[in-house]
């Protein structure tokens, strides 16, 4: 066939120029080529020589990305231009197909224009990124020329009577408009930027964000193509494959997306709403309006994208219908009759009746639809993330104003706040994500039903009715599912609470042999949770079943009705397969709409209830004088004279304070003054209100009446002092999840000299030396990896380090031994604070320090008993003074120290060293476990780590599936395979049925006989029905099999985990962070319970659907296999790169949420400290940083998901295009049946969805299997049991023989007790004392086999304890620990969890422990509630409860390990007497904190460095001159 620009028919009019050259169609087309050649000629040298030689300039840092005016409009117009040009090329080829020779001028100019359009946009992008607008002049000329030449062509068409019925006329008109608009955009750039025709060009700076090299999230700044395809993510995802992603890699958030920006935006919207309706209360309506005002615009954009995507989604079924219909007719385009200017013209109808044209249009529609859909998702999620950041900031600001009583009364717990932040704000984020569905889905449903009706008539409505009727059932199931999930969550929270308490008190449980009680308690809750999980699994399987089965049922009913009732109806493949595609489109919105509506309602409830209107008590802020601290300006301080009435720092007159507004006053009739620059001590019995007084002064209590005034005259002090804050160390030490140094400096600037002095004063240096990274060691989980004393001293060190004028210390000595207390008092309080003339208020039980006080406040039962100097009290309150004197056991004298003091317990340090040693080992294991990359110079190592990161954890998958058992696994695999085989068979059957029906119909038409037999549908419909019913049954089997597997695995894993953990040796708990164990029980168990089964089902379904779809297409057109290879390679690499990046980002998203949540809980726990220090602003700033870190990780994760989906969708579109072209060609030239063409295309259309789901689920599965792996890691923990026969009443006498005993904490650590020998007779009272770290506590733990006894033995009543079962041994002894541990529940449960004692026995124990009056006053008495950790009792009261608990267990051996540390001396003395009398017949071993408490003991053991130094009666030791015990007693006076 001849090929020429104008064609070469012999009598061609194409070369006829009789009526002027412009009236020759070919010439006009040739003229149209000129602008495109001009542009290509001008720009190619600039593009390839100019930028090619300096390629670095193209990749200048993104700070130079300046969008010229009309940037987005230019891109949109260019995309439209490219699409119109493709249509013009196609129109030229189709219309040329009817002539004998090829007319190049019909499509070659359009081809050149297409090239030029692409070049123009590449050229423009390069000019824009290098910010060199003068080069745009070339484009100005191009658009002008193109516009002129196209206009000439259009005018000539009009002159020759070509009209709208011809497609080429419409396309030319469109091109004129597009070129005109692009020319207008170019002129606008000149007008705004003034780069040409103006004297001074306009200087433009890039956006502020882009001037910051730290901003790496570029979605808002890149061009439209990169925005739509997430092209800018390519380099990021490639980098992620080379090295792990961390916060540094993802950089900062752009300003517009930062939490502060969004918070301000939200607040402004709220203020605007308030101003509009100042009188009306702030209801949910105004909140809603404010939200719409702040975040409504992007939501509207997302909804628009969504509706466009949904409408374009219908192009698939319609194009399939058209292609199959046209192919069935042999793709014969009607021969056009119109011939003008020597060429043929075709109409749009003729153009669309070409199957190849429809295939190309389908390809473009899919590309566009997928791009719009992903854009809609992205914009919605981004808006949700922005809203989440704003609301978290709002919640935080509200928390900062919480009253302390809100927390202590349990009205608002740290857990509730974490839920509010972690769950409720995410609910809102997902509401924004789902919001566009609310209006897009109804539109989709209506259009879908109308199209079905158009294709199938009345039978379509019957099929749609099936789906619509079953939609409420689906809604009902979804409602039940969410109810099951809610009850599962409640039981899960209850189980976690119990597990948490069990783990926190594990030492006590092991010592008291109560593991079985708590084990059965957790198991009982787990059983309830499992019942809930079963219903959750049942409804999940019904939901999965309905999603899969309803489309099959709808298709079955529709086609059977259509075939049998409407005899003359069109039952062709084109109708059948288009209908199947429409049903698939319809099912999703119909089922999801109910869920979306429910989620919306739920989110709105959360929104209105949780976040805004809830009134919380705000702290008492009526302290204007204190606010004025910021105005201090003077330089020197005037000397203080206590007699001056105004020389006070704080003064309270007639103060009545309460914790709850409606409750009784906790402090009554308070009249005190705290002198300026002096040391004030507050003393009194346990629970008399000492700590409350400090909090009242700080404004943390609700004031009923009275005044608190802070000194208002100008203080004169040096510039460096920080003003306006009180350095406060609370009774319960509060630490940040930060380094030791950060905890001490606490947001202040670092001063090395001062820091060193504080460390020395608090004796922290030896502890710091032990830590693996010194003072840079992270101490977290409420400072859990430190002992009580260490936490206390860091808390005090923080107060000492601050440069504030006022320091409040609440019982800083409670967890310290005598030497540490003295050192802290001398070096810290007296030397650093008092000598520096700072106002110090000290709450203490250590009455021996009273002589140091300048001012004393004595409290009793919530009122002030007396205040004044010690001499004042000696004169006026002789009785009180004498009482104190007996308690102090000494006169007012300075402490004399003999030798240098061993500053802190070597035991604590050994513990710490031991913990650190094992923790490092554990971290190493974790790293191997998590297969995380560590920076290493060794390239081989790095490459192997990277290889591991790219690998799927198949072993963990195997462990998970093997836990399902031998029966379930084959059922699971076989049912899935069978189901998908049947699915393919159903569609194949339909293809055969429709093909046979249409071919018979065509034969009848050809024969033209009126009485020919009508096609018999019955055999086909029967086979079709049987297959459909089988498919539905298999859907049910697979959905049940998956959920059943999940239930079996989850039950097995949790039971194994709990058994292993509870039997683990104490060593395991000392070396494993509590948070790590809790995470296994919470997050990991939740993943295995609820997420893995769903992901497994989804993954297997999407994989098998994908495989079956590709198999069907390959069966229909084997040619497709050739194209499949490159596509498969692309898919493989995309998923490989995505999985690595996705996992890192997912982990980063989770890990950045943890600091955010812990910052919230830290703030809640340390509210009083933060407010005392006046550090609210600093903590708010920290919150903004944490929120932004979490949000940037979430945004990158969203962008990565969109990156994957866009690419998979585009590959899917390519699959459709290739499948369509190959099947059309096969049908036309190899006589393939049109039914199989329909089948192939229907499957091709779904490939992209399946591909997406497959890769996403693979990535999810990889992350979720980490939970299985971590739990299996813990299951390797070894527990131990011993079996030995012994008397049932053992030990009845309480005789203890210790023979050559040596113990250590671990086989690789040094011994802490060495060759100890002792004999304790029945009923003896033994006191053990020694310097801190001498091995006293290890001695007590040896009785319970909590430490490794590697030599010697302990014999109690003739039995070697090493041979006894641990459970029995520990249940027959009693111990009271230094740290008081109470469990949530009743007082009765805390005293007697085994339920063995009568009420009278419990009251007796409470009376002994001096608690009877306290418990009697509580509502419920013995059944009064104890909150978590015993927070509703003071520290001293908690210790007394622990004593009572030990008294309840009437064992013959009783050990007290520094049990009276938090108790005032008076109570302690009473207790000591009671112990001596109430336990006259029992053996009592007391480890002494205060040496005077063991002066009445029968025997005293003095220890040093794990050896017994002295062992005799106390009176004998006191008489010896060189006795160490005597020196201890002397020092303790």
TrEMBL record:
Biased composition (Acidic residues): 925-941
Membrane-crossing segments per the record: 33-52, 73-94, 106-124, 136-154, 166-185, 307-328, 340-368, 428-447, 453-477, 536-563, 575-593, 960-978, 1023-1042, 1109-1135
Superkingdom classification of source: Eukaryota
GO molecular function: ABC-type transporter activity; ATP binding; ATP hydrolysis activity; sulfonylurea receptor activity
Any one Pfam family match given in the protein's UniProt record, by short name: ABC_membrane
Residues of the ABC transporter domain: 650-886, 1296-1530
One GO CC annotation: plasma membrane
Domain ABC transmembrane type-1, first and last residues per copy: 300-602, 971-1262
Entry keyword set: ATP-binding, Glycoprotein, Membrane, Nucleotide-binding, Receptor, Repeat, Transmembrane, Transmembrane helix, Transport
Annotated compartments: Cell membrane
InterPro entries xrefs: AAA+_ATPase, ABC1_TM_dom, ABC1_TM_sf, ABC_transporter-like_ATP-bd, ABC_transporter-like_CS, ABC_transporter_C-like, ABCC8/9, P-loop_NTPase
GO terms, biological process: potassium ion transmembrane transport; response to ATP
Annotated family: Belongs to the ABC transporter superfamily. ABCC family. Conjugate transporter (TC 3.A.1.208) subfamily.
PANTHER family per the UniProt record, alphabetical: ATP-BINDING CASSETTE SUB-FAMILY C, ATP-BINDING CASSETTE SUB-FAMILY C MEMBER 8
Protein name, entry field: ATP binding cassette subfamily C member 8
């Amino acid at each position: 066939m001849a090929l020429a620009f104008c064609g070469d028919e012999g009598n061609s009019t194409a070369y006829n120029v009789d009526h002027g050259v412009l009236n020759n169609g070919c010439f006009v087309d040739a003229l149209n080529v000129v602008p495109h050649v001009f542009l290509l000629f001008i720009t190619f040298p600039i593009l390839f020589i100019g930028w090619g030689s300096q390629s670095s300039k193209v990749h200048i840092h993104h700070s130079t990305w300046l969008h010229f005016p009309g940037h987005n409009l230019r891109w949109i117009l260019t995309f439209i231009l490219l699409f119109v040009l493709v249509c013009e090329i196609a129109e030229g080829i189709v219309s040329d197909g009817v002539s004998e020779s090829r007319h190049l001028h019909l499509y070659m100019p359009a081809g050149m224009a297409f090239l030029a359009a692409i070049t123009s946009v590449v050229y423009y992008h390069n000019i824009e990124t290098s910010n060199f607008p003068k080069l745009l002049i070339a484009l100005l000329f191009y658009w002008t020329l193109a516009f002129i030449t196209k206009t000439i062509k259009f005018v000539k068409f009009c002159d020759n009577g070509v009209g709208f019925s011809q497609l080429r006329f419409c396309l030319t008109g469109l091109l004129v408009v597009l070129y005109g608009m692009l020319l207008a955009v170019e002129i606008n750039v000149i007008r705004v930027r003034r780069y040409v025709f103006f004297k001074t060009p306009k200087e433009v700076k890039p956006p502020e964000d882009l001037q910051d090299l730290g901003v790496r999230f570029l979605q808002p700044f890149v061009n439209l193509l990169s925005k739509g395809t997430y092209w800018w993510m390519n380099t990021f995802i490639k980098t992620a494959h080379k090295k792990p992603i961390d916060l540094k890699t993802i950089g900062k958030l752009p300003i517009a997306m930062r939490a502060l920006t969004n918070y301000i935006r939200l607040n402004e919207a709220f203020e605007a709403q308030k101003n509009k309706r100042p009188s009306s209360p702030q209801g949910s309506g105004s909140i809603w309006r404010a939200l719409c005002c702040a975040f409504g615009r992007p939501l509207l954009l997302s909804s628009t994208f969504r509706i466009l995507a949904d409408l374009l989604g219908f192009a698939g079924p319609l194009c399939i219908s058209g292609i199959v219909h046209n192919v069935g007719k042999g793709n014969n385009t009607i021969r056009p009759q119109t011939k003008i200017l020597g060429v043929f013209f075709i109409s749009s109808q003729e153009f669309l009746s070409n199957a190849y044209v429809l295939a190309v249009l389908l390809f473009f529609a899919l590309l566009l639809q997928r791009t719009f859909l992903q854009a809609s998702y992205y914009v919605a999620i981004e808006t949700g993330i922005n809203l989440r950041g704003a609301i978290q900031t709002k919640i935080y600001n509200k928390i900062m104003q919480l009253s302390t009583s809100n927390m202590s009364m349990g009205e608002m717990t740290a857990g509730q706040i974490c839920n509010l932040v972690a769950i409720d704000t995410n609910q809102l984020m997902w509401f924004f994500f789902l919001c566009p569905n609310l209006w897009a889905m109804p539109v989709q449903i209506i259009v879908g039903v109308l199209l079905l009706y158009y294709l199938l008539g009345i039978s379509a409505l019957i099929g749609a009715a099936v789906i619509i009727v079953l939609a409420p059932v689906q809604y009902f199931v979804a409602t039940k599912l969410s109810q099951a999930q809610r009850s599962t969550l409640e039981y899960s929270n209850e189980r976690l609470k119990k597990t948490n308490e069990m783990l926190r008190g594990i030492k006590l449980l092991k010592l008291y042999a109560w593991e079985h009680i708590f084990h059965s308690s957790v198991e009982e809750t787990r059983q309830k949770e499992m019942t809930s999980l079963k219903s959750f699994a049942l409804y999940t399987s019904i939901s999965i079943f309905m999603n899969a089965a309803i489309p099959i049922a709808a298709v079955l009913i529709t086609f059977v009705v259509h075939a049998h009732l409407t005899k003359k109806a069109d039952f062709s493949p084109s109708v059948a397969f288009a209908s199947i595609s429409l049903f698939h489109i319809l099912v999703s919105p119909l089922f999801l709409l109910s869920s979306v509506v429910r989620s919306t309602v739920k989110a709105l409830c959360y929104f209105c209830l949780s976040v805004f209107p809830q009134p919380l008590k705000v702290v008492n802020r009526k302290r204007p004088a204190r606010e004025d601290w910021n105005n201090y300006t003077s330089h020197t301080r005037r000397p203080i004279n206590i007699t001056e009435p105004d020389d006070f720092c704080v003064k309270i007159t007639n103060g009545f304070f309460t914790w709850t507004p409606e409750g009784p006053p906790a402090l009554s009739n308070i009249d005190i003054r705290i002198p300026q620059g002096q040391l004030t001590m507050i003393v009194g019995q346990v629970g008399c209100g000492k700590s409350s007084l400090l909090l009242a002064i700080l404004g943390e209590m609700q004031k009923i009446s009275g005044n608190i005034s802070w000194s208002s005259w100008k203080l004169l002090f040096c510039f460096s002092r920080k003003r306006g804050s009180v350095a406060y160390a609370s009774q319960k030490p509060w630490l940040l999840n930060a380094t030791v140094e950060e905890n001490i400096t606490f947001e202040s600037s670092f001063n090395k000299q001062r820091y060193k002095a504080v460390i020395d004063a608090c004796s922290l240096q030896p502890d710091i030396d032990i830590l693996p990274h010194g003072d840079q060691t992270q101490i977290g989980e409420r400072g859990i990896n430190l002992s009580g004393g260490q936490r206390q001293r860091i808390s005090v060190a923080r107060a000492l380090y601050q440069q504030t004028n006022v320091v409040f210390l609440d019982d800083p000595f409670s967890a310290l031994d005598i030497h540490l207390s003295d050192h802290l008092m001398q070096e810290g309080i007296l030397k650093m604070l008092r000598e520096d003339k700072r106002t110090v208020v000290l709450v203490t039980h250590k009455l021996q320090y009273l002589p140091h006080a300048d001012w004393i406040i004595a409290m009793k039962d919530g009122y002030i008993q007396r205040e004044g100097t010690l001499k004042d009290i000696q004169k006026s309150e002789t009785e009180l003074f004498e009482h104190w004197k007996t308690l102090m056991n000494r006169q007012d004298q300075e402490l004399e120290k003999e030798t240098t003091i061993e500053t802190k317990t070597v035991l604590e340090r050994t513990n710490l060293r031991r913990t650190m040693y094992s923790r490092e080992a554990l971290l190493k294991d974790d790293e191997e476990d998590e297969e995380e990359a560590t920076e290493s110079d060794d390239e081989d190592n790095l490459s192997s780590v990277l290889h591991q990161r790219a690998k799927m954890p198949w072993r963990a998958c195997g462990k998970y599936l093997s836990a399902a058992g031998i029966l379930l696994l084959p059922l699971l695999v076989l049912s899935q395979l069978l189901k998908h085989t049947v699915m393919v068979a159903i569609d194949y059957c339909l293809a055969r049925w429709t093909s046979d029906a249409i071919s018979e119909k065509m034969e009848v038409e050809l024969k033209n006989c009126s009485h020919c037999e009508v096609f018999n549908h019955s055999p086909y419909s029967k086979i079709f029905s049987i297959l459909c019913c089988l498919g539905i049954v298999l859907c049910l089997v697979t959905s049940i099999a998956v959920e059943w597997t999940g239930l079996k695995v989850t039950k097995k894993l949790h039971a194994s985990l709990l058994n292993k953990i509870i039997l683990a040796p104490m060593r395991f708990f000392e070396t494993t962070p509590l948070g790590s164990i809790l995470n296994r029980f919470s997050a990991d168990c939740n993943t295995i319970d609820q997420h893995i089964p769903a992901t497994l089902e989804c993954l297997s379904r999407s994989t098998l659907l994908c495989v079956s779809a590709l198999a069907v297409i390959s069966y229909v057109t084997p040619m497709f296999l050739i194209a499949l290879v490159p596509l498969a390679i692309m898919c493989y690499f995309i998923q490989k790169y995505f999985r690595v990046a996705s996992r890192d980002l997912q982990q980063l998203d989770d890990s950045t949420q943890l600091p955010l949540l812990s910052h919230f809980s830290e703030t809640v726990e340390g509210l009083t400290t933060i407010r005392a220090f006046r550090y609210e602003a600093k903590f708010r700033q920290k919150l903004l940083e944490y929120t932004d870190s979490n949000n940037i990780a979430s945004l990158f994760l969203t962008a990565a998901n969109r990156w994957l989906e866009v690419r998979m969708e585009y590959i899917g579109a390519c699959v459709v295009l290739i499948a369509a072209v190959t099947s059309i060609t096969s049908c036309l030239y190899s006589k393939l049946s049109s039914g199989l063409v329909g089948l192939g295309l229907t499957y091709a259309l779904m490939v992209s969805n399946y591909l997406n789901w497959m890769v996403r689920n693979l990535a999810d599965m990889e992350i979720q299997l980490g939970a299985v792996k971590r739990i299996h890691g813990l299951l390797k923990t070894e527990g131990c049991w011993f079996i030995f026969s012994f008397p049932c009443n053992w030990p009845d006498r309480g005789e203890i023989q210790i023979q050559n005993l040596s113990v250590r904490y671990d086989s690789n650590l040094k011994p802490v007790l060495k060759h100890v020998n002792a004999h304790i007779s029945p009923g003896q009272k033994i006191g053990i004392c020694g310097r801190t770290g001498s091995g006293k506590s290890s001695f007590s733990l040896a009785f319970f086999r909590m430490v490794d006894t590697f030599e010697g033995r302990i014999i109690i009543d003739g039995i070697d304890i090493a041979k006894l079962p641990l459970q029995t041994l520990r249940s027959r002894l009693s111990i009271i620990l230094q740290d008081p541990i109470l469990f949530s529940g009743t007082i009765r449960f805390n005293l007697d969890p085994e339920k063995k004692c009568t009420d009278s026995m419990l009251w007796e124990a409470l009376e002994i422990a001096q608690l009877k009056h306290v418990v009697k006053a509580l509502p419920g008495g013995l059944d009064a509630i104890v909150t978590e950790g015993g927070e509703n009792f003071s520290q001293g009261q908690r210790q007394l409860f622990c004593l009572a608990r030990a008294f309840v267990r009437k064992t013959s051996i009783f050990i007290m390990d520094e049990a009276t540390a938090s108790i005032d001396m008076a109570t302690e003395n009473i207790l000591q007497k009671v112990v001596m009398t109430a336990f006259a017949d029992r053996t009592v071993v007391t480890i002494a904190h205060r040496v005077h408490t063991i002066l009445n003991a029968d025997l005293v053991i003095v220890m040093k460095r794990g050896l017994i130094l002295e062992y005799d009666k106390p009176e004998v030791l006191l008489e010896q001159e060189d006795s160490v015990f005597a020196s201890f007693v002397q020092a303790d006076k």
